[in-house]
Specification:
With 409 residues, the protein is mostly helical. It folds into 3 domains: 77 residues, GPCR, family 2, extracellular hormone receptor domain (Hormone receptor fold), CATH 4.10.1240.10; 263 residues, Rhodopsin 7-helix transmembrane proteins (Rhopdopsin 7-helix transmembrane proteins, Up-down Bundle), CATH 1.20.1070.10; 50 residues. Helices cover 67% and strands 4% of the residues. The strands form 2 sheets. A 3-stranded antiparallel beta sheet has the order 3-4-5, with no helix packed on it. It has a two-stranded antiparallel ribbon with strand order 1-2. Strand 4 and strand 5 form a beta hairpin. Helix 5 packs parallel to helix 7. The radius of gyration is 33 Å and the shape is elongated. The chain starts with a helix and ends with a helix.
């Protein structure tokens, strides 16, 4: 509407002013040109309303001696309809986008912090935390790719529209990285399930090579992405590759993700079964309530790590029911964006090993600070009096305080 208003003002300025009749004007919806007295002007419905409601109506005004008549028929009757589904969907998409942006931003901050913590502390370097680290990185890359893609494709600024740019290489590359990082994130969730299931099943000490997990997490999605790019070039090389009219490229993305989610769900059920058996063996003298409490806690902790929430809609890749489609979009894009935040909090900030390392580091820094303060007080005392014995009571008191604080720490 703002663009139509600017175009109307330019057109009216270019027209010669009429001495008689009605002057052209913009009535907040349509652009009416100069007209003679008695002339009836008819215009189609404004294009924004046509996009919203899809109703092809006409609006008319008559130029009288007193000026323009009112628009007839009423614009709400001629150009709108009772079907308010499209405007409601636009509001719904905007809410989901804001929620998704918030979730990915918070996830990006917490995951980046978790990655730094695991990399800094050498005691945390093991296969299990290396797998967690790769999962965190996949979530970080996924969040960055989503935010970049939304900025390029769905920005409110019309100057960033990829379809109007001279070169679509950067826009297509953003879609390639976006799809690759999402697929890699799902496969690293699968790696988490495989690793934990292997630990619970194997009795003797055994460790799978980390390179195998790296191949599953980063290598398999790379193979499918190469196939997707080839299919895009030869089957559907249109616009910014964001449209999916040909089903083949879309299946190369969705089907591997669907298979990884199903396999992870099977591993999740198997792990819960193993946990039930182990709890029954270890809690022989315990009550059923404690067993159920521990089992529920283990289950809730494993759900975000395995991505079990995706199983609910895995069979609905493109649901036909519009209400079900809204529910799927809300959970997958809206609430699903907070999964990285939940994983970072549960498996880094609430991890007992990480907390012990942070406490150990804090104690070390506190001890150094108190020791440095005591040495500084001692040096000042010696420099003022030239001898250490004159300030012996004060230094002894400082040392006793230091010993007390060190003991407390």
């Amino acid at each position: 509407m703002q663009r139509a208003k600017k175009e109307c003002q330019i057109q009216l300025q270019q027209q010669a002013a009429a001495s008689t009749g009605c002057l052209g004007e913009w009535d907040n919806f349509s652009c009416w040109q100069n007209a003679a007295v008695g002339e009836v002007m008819t215009l189609p419905c404004p294009s924004p309303l046509l996009l919203l409601f899809g109703k092809n109506g006409n609006l008319s005004r008559k130029c009288t001696e007193k000026g323009w008549s009112n628009v007839y028929p009423i614009i709400t009757i001629a150009c709108s309809s009772n079907n308010t589904e499209e405007p409601n969907m636009l509001v719904f998409y905007r809410v989901v986008r804001v929620l998704s942006t918030l979730g990915h931003s918070l996830s990006l901050i917490t995951l980046f912090t978790s990655t730094i913590i695991i990399c800094l502390f050498r005691r945390l370097h093991c296969t299990r935390n290396y797998i967690h680290l790769n999962l965190f990185v996949s979530f970080v890359l996924r969040a960055m790719a989503v935010l970049t893609k939304d900025t390029l494709l769905f920005s409110d600024d019309e100057n960033t529209d990829c379809s109007t740019q001279p070169s679509l290489v950067g826009c297509k590359a953003s879609l390639v990285f976006f799809n690759y990082f999402i697929m890699a994130n799902f496969f690293w969730l699968l790696v988490e399930g495989l690793y934990l299931h292997t630990l619970l099943l194997v009795i003797h000490p055994y460790s799978t090579c980390l390179s195998i997990y790296m191949l599953i997490g980063w290598g398999i999605p790379f193979v499918f992405m190469v196939a997707w790019i080839i299919c895009r070039i030869y089957l559907e090389d249109t616009s910014c590759w964001e449209m999916n009219e040909n089903p083949v490229p879309d299946r190369l993305i969705n089907w591997p993700i669907m298979v990884s989610v199903i396999i992870n769900f099977i591993l999740f059920i198997s792990i819960i079964r193993i946990l039930v058996q182990k709890l029954r063996c270890t809690d022989v003298g315990g009550n059923d309530q404690s067993q159920y409490r521990r089992l529920a806690k283990s289950t809730l902790l494993l759900i975000p790590l395995f991505g079990v929430n995706y199983v609910v809609f895995v069979y609905l890749m493109e649901p036909d029911n519009k209400n079900m489609k809204k529910v799927k979009i809300f959970f997958d894009l809206g609430l699903g964006s907070f999964q990285g935040l939940i994983v970072a909090v549960l498996y880094c900030f609430l991890n007992s090993e990480v907390q012990s390392e942070l406490r150990r580091t804090w104690r070390s820094l506190s001890l150094k600070r108190y020791v440095g303060r005591d040495c500084k007080l001692h040096a000042i005392s010696v420099s003022r009096n030239g001898t250490e014995n004159s300030q012996f009571p004060r230094n002894s008191r400082a040392q006793s305080i230091l010993q007390t604080e060190t003991t407390v720490l």
